[in-house]
Write a structure and sequence with these properties.
Layout lengths: L3 E4 L10 E4 L2 H15 L7 H9 L2 E2 L4
Antiparallel strand pairs: 1-2, 1-3
The structure holds zinc ion.
């Protein structure tokens, strides 16, 4: 059951990419790959990665 999700628009991009996973760590490589292909970041700079990580949200439990 995925508990964390990331929306690229939450990181300030006009982009509809979304991904979810069980842990924030699980999302990081997926976000990096997305940034590489969709946003032309061959290497994601540290400050951008911090912004991406800050945009990872925990799903509300119902
Ligand atoms: Zn994006």
């Amino acid at each position: 059951m995925p508990r964390y999700y990331f929306k690229c628009s939450d990181a300030g991009y006009q982009c509809s990419y979304e991904v979810d996973g069980a842990t924030p760590e699980e999302l990081e490589p997926k976000i990096k790959i997305h940034a590489k292909y969709a946003h032309n970041m061959f290497e994601v700079p540290e400050d951008k990665m911090s912004a991406f990580k800050a945009a990872i949200k925990e799903k509300p439990t119902s």
